[in-house]
């Protein structure tokens, strides 16, 4: 019996520390990865170069096209990207797309979710891996994790301490589960 591992291809659309950290995890888990990032996102570009993965640098205002990918991905993963991935691009991927949002969706959608949660004096928040759709933060929830909000903590502190690391963990876990064909 062969124990051959079939390739599972991920198109990572990512920025910042989170995008670079997710890339590192995906490469370590033996995924075949390509990257789409934005100009000035040195962390993701440097991590992609070090990993030897194909990379496209494209301004956020520029629409993604089929030509941006070296192959048809099995999954599109959005990690700290504000890019809306069009339906025709999501359809390229056999398993569609997933993204991470730093709140317990459906609560606190949008760019200011962490700040909004703190301003609402919540004591617990978390992160969500969800299905990408053309609706911002609107797809079905796949995985969630909770974190405590510390007394006096600001949005940036909460992001760095707990929400960004949670995003790496949840996105990596979701990608492995997608590859294995696990039921949600």
Your description of this structure?
The protein has 184 residues and is an alpha/beta fold. Helices cover 33% and strands 22% of the residues. The protein has helices at residues 16-28, 42-51, 87-90, 113-119, 155-180; strands at 9-14, 32-37, 55-57, 75-79, 97-101, 124-131, 141-148. Helix 2 (42-51) links the parallel strand 2 (32-37) and strand 3. Helix 1 packs parallel to helix 2. It is globular and about 45 Å long. The protein starts with 8 loop residues before the first strand and ends with a helix. The relative contact order is 0.16.
Helical/strand content category: alpha/beta
Helix content: 25-40%
Q: Count of helices?
A: 5
Beta-strand residue fraction: 15-25%
How many DSSP-defined strands? 7
Low-confidence stretches: none
The largest pleated sheet is described as: 7 strands, mixed
**Mean pLDDT over the residues:** 93
Order of helices and strands: EHEHEEHEHEEH
Largest sheet strand order: 3-2-1-4-5-6-7
Instruction: For the record, give the distance between the C-alpha atoms at the N and C termini, rounded to a whole number.
Output: 28 Å
Net shape: globular
* Assembly of the depicted chains: single chain
If you compute it from the alpha carbons, what radius of gyration comes out, rounded to the nearest whole angstrom?
A: 16 Å
């Amino acid at each position: 019996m062969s124990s051959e591992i079939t390739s599972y291809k991920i198109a990572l659309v990512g920025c910042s520390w989170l995008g670079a950290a997710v890339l590192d995890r995906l490469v370590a888990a033996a995924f075949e990865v390509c990257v789409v990032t934005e100009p000035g996102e040195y962390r993701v570009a440097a991590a992609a170069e070090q990993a030897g993965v194909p990379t496209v640098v494209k301004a956020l205002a520029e629409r993604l096209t089929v030509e941006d990918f070296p192959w048809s991905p099995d999954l599109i993963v959005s990690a700290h990207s504000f890019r809306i991935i069009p339906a025709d691009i999501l359809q390229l991927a056999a398993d569609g797309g997933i993204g991470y949002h730093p709140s317990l969706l459906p609560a606190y959608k949008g760019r200011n979710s962490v700040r909004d949660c703190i301003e609402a004096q919540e004591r617990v928040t978390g992160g969500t891996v969800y299905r990408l759709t053309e609706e911002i933060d609107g797809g079905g929830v796949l995985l969630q994790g909770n974190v405590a909000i510390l007394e006096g903590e600001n949005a940036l502190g909460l992001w760095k301490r707990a929400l960004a690391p949670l995003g790496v963990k949840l996105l990596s876990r979701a990608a492995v589960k997608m590859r294995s064909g696990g039921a949600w």
